[in-house]
Amino acid sequence: MSASIIPTIRGYLSGDDAHQTAGIATITELIAANNPIVRLEQSWFYPQGGGQPSDQGTIGSSTVTHVVYDKDTGVVDHHVNTLDGLVVGEQYPFVIDEILRRRHSALHTAGHLIAAVVNCSHSALTATLGHHWPGESRVEFEGDLELLSANDIPHINSQLADAVRLDLPIKIVSSPDPLSREIEIQGFAPIPCGGTHVRSLAEIGAIVVTGIKKVKQRLRVSYTVN
Questions:
Q1: Pairing mode, if any, of strands 62-70 and 75-80?
Q2: Which distant-in-sequence residues (6+ apart) come within 8 Å of 143 by Cβ?
Q3: What is the DSSP secondary structure assignment for residue 110, as one 8-state letter?
Q4: What domains are defined for the chain?
Q5: What confidence score (pLDDT) does residue 6 get?
Q6: Rounded mean pLDDT of 91-98?
Q7: Cβ(115)–Cβ(191) below 8 Å
Q8: How many Å separate Cα 135 from the centre of its chain?
Q9: How far apart are CA 20 and CA 11, in angstroms?
């Protein structure tokens, strides 16, 4: 790693900071380019990854359009519309689009709940991929693909509705190593994950599985939240 590159403290990973959507941030670097980049000492903006879109929002008067994390350097890059008015070393208010964050968090947590519910009923199916984008959310399973079909959708949706009705809490289990971070839906096994999540299932609203089909060597369970 270059000595000039300062890894970003990732506030979105642990404790109450994981839900912070506004505050003050210190700029460590500004990169002028066709897509200007702002780097912060500490960032609460979630970068795209783990099947989840990035946060959007503002830093000072600049609009944050996309956020990326470089695991090799440990730096979070905030792509913005302009660097005008920003100065390295200065502090600026930041605001994360809370409506967008809640939507992404709800979809991500819903995906984990679907994986847990399916695995509890069918241990021979293991979730291996999650894609939690609005309008195209899905969880894909490997294992005995004959265990589930579209006929099972009403039963799965009933189980999901029961869990949401109980408003089961979500616990973020952190460690000194961010790679060991897990989330735990009460009553289900912890799942390694670095994404954002709701505090409890009632925040999601209704989770609806809309389709189950085989795609190559996987079983795809598509869903939405309302």
A1: antiparallel
A2: 122, 124, 125, 126, 219
A3: H
A4: 9-96 (2.40.30.130), 101-225 (3.30.980.10)
A5: 85
A6: 98
A7: yes
A8: 15
A9: 8
